[in-house]
Design a protein that fits this description.
The protein has 71 residues and is mostly helical. The longest helix is centred in the last third of the chain and has 27 residues. The chain is elongated, with a radius of gyration of 15 Å. The protein starts with 11 loop residues before the first helix and ends in a 5-residue tail after the last helix.
């Protein structure tokens, strides 16, 4: 991980925002891998991982809707 992104003073909203950005990057990565993989097994695994990352993004967005941004 990128420890420099997290400080002891991070608020829940900030932590979730950082997590969402990470999950979005992972979703994009696996999507690109699925598009470009020359092997069916790799393509299928990448699609599955992309779907999982999409689910993670959805969950984090739900949590963000319930947490107030810092003042």
């Amino acid at each position: 991980g990128r420890g420099e992104d997290i400080t002891p003073l991070v608020q829940p909203w900030q932590a979730l925002t950082i997590a969402l950005a990470s999950e979005e990057r992972a979703e994009k990565y696996f999507g690109q891998l699925a598009q470009n993989a020359p092997v069916d097994a790799v393509r299928n695994a990448a699609r599955q991982l992309q779907r999982e990352e999409e689910e993670h993004c959805d969950l984090i967005r739900e949590w963000l809707a319930r947490v107030s941004p810092p003042l």
